[in-house]
Amino acid sequence: MDQTRDTTTQPATTDETPGRRWAVPxxxxxxxxxxxxxxxxxxxxxxxxxxxxxxxxxxxxxxRTDITSLxxxxxALAIGRTAVWYSGWMDxxxxxxxxxxxxxxxxxxxxxxxxxxxxxxxxxxxxxxSPEVVDDLAGDVPTGELQSSVALDNALSTPYWHxxxxxxxxxDEIVLVVEGRHSAR
Length: 185
Fold this sequence. Notes:
Elements: H1 26-55, E1 57-59, H2 67-73, E2 82-90, E3 103-109, H3 114-121, E4 125-126, H4 135-138, E5 147-148, H5 150-156, E6 161-168, E7 173-180
Antiparallel strand pairs: 1-2, 2-3, 3-7, 4-5, 6-7
């Protein structure tokens, strides 16, 4: 007995007309497009923010070591023993336009064990990138693990100065990237 099977294939039945793609509900399409736009926008904003901070800084290049001048601007730093810092103006400003500098980058040495106290008090966590300080200060930034938190930033900031703080528990130092919020006049 010869049993043959019919092996011809029939095209699958679809509701699509030739040349048309499958339909996506309009609401879902809008959500997907909105999400894609948000991701692209956020990514380009992040890149802009990361490259703007150090690229727009200009100063007189004077290496400052007077901790008193620094703590007058940021009283929370009065705990520091020594400091190395630079300051200047953003966006092409100069002393004649804005008598108070609009940025400061600093490395402040703390009393022994104080960095660990701050890390504990402000729930800091390791950061994956180095602080964006001016080139002249980069050699003073401690090597090794740096820690940060929003709570620490807020504790060191003032109504005029916004601080991004990076703690080195190993060396008892804090690195600050500080920008003015508005005119201090």
